[in-house]
Write a structure and sequence with these properties.
Largest sheet: 8 strands, mixed
Radius of gyration: 22 Å
CATH class of the largest domain: Alpha Beta
Shape: elongated
Number of strands: 13
Order of helices and strands: EHEHEEHEHEHEEEHEHEHEHEHHHHH
Number of helices: 14
Structural class: alpha/beta
Distance between the termini: 9 Å
CATH topology of the largest domain: Rossmann fold
Length: 366
């Protein structure tokens, strides 16, 4: 395959946790379209979530086109089967171990199929060491005509990196001295967080922006009106990305917003998806381990202690101090900016993926 040849890419996505999965897919499709000549088909089981991130997409149409992409409802075999039988996918991006629709497997593993399909499993973002171990690792299928590999986003040169998308560095356009904090979290006991924010507000003009979603009600249950609070409406992805960059401090959740926070250079605390036995702290500690070398030891110690306490189930985070982190935000920003620079130096996930697809395709045709 020549490097200038057009790519045929099908992206699969099952929405597990609201918007992170389809948010990544939307970001990836947009980035692929800008960085290579490609035909993109997206198959998702949740058009409603997709339509909230991009209002021009309809949640009522089992097939539609948008930005030149063809978008299909995973659950509508009667529409999908004829289209994908006529044009069997060349490259399938299977996002987050979502599997494949039965109707697609019927096509790929049919005894009469004589083509060659390349499946790439794109896994969840993590700083854990297995991301490097699994990156570009082969995986088996039940047919020699269907090849499969793993491709891992991540934080090191031994992974695919992060999607840069249309990312722009934050620019300070504030006309006042207001300190802005974005709260986007899972459910939590926010009583101590609110107490710390209130203490900070006594000496700083503080404005907290509370995102809609799962953590909103639990935050409001602790809110004491001692600082300015704005409850945000749900925002399409482009608006959300731009809004995050206007903040001075981020309390964010999930993985897609984490990737934006990491690239921003803005000080942040990550609330990882809660798992059994507090396994989320394994992920948090892995990320902190990657970040540590960019911070002064004392600054990092306080940041690390708070991040782990914040992600510990049933913890009220009543020992590590958010107040100290807010007061020291300017110094912390140096470390977060250095971490951000390292991620840009690693290179763009989409460009790495395109290169991988072209190289693998060439190897399979030689």
């Amino acid at each position: 395959m020549e490097s200038s040849s057009k790519l045929d890419i099908t992206i699969l996505c099952k929405v597990v946790d609201n918007f992170g999965d389809i948010g990544f897919v939307y970001r990836l499709a947009r980035s692929l379209s800008k960085k290579c000549d490609c035909d993109i088909r997206i198959i998702t089981d949740n058009l409603h979530s997709f339509s909230l991130l991009e209002p021009k997409i309809s949640d009522a149409e089992a097939f539609q086109t948008f930005e030149g992409w063809k978008i299909f409802d995973w659950n509508n075999a009667s529409i999908c089967t004829p289209s994908f039988t006529e044009q069997v996918p060349d490259v399938i991006l299977e996002c987050f171990q979502c599997g494949r629709p039965e109707w697609l497997d019927d096509i790929l593993f049919s005894p009469t199929f004589n083509g060659l399909v390349k499946i790439i499993n794109i896994d969840y973002l993590t700083a854990e060491s297995y991301a490097e171990d699994f990156h570009c690792l082969k995986s088996g299928t039940r047919s020699a005509k269907v090849k499969k590999m793993n491709f891992m986003p991540g934080f090191s040169s031994k992974t695919g990196g992060l999607i840069f998308d249309t990312y722009k560095r934050p620019v300070n356009t504030k006309s006042n001295d207001e300190f802005s904090v974005l709260v986007f979290s899972y459910e939590h006991d926010f009583s101590f967080i609110v107490k710390e924010l209130s203490a900070f507000a006594k000496t700083n003009p503080l404005h907290v922006y509370l995102a809609s979603g799962r953590g909103k009600d639990s935050f409001m249950a602790s809110y004491n009106s001692q600082f300015t609070l704005t409850e945000l409406p749900f925002m399409p992805q482009n608006e959300w990305d731009a809004f995050m960059l206007k903040m001075d401090f981020l309390l964010i959740r999930g993985e897609d917003s984490l990737s934006r926070a990491c690239l921003s250079g803005i000080p942040f605390i990550w609330h990882a998806y809660v798992q059994d036995d507090d396994y989320q702290n394994v992920k948090v500690k892995a990320l902190l381990s990657v970040m540590e070398k960019y911070f002064e030891p004392n600054d990092f110690s306080k940041l690390s202690d708070f991040c782990i306490a914040y992600n510990t189930t049933k913890s009220k985070v009543d020992s590590p101090s958010l107040l100290e982190l807010l007061q020291n935000a300017k110094e912390l920003k140096k470390g977060f900016s250095a971490f951000s620079n390292s991620l840009f130096d690693n290179g763009d996930f989409t460009e790495a993926l395109i290169s991988f697809i072209r190289k693998w395709s060439k190897e399979l045709t030689c």
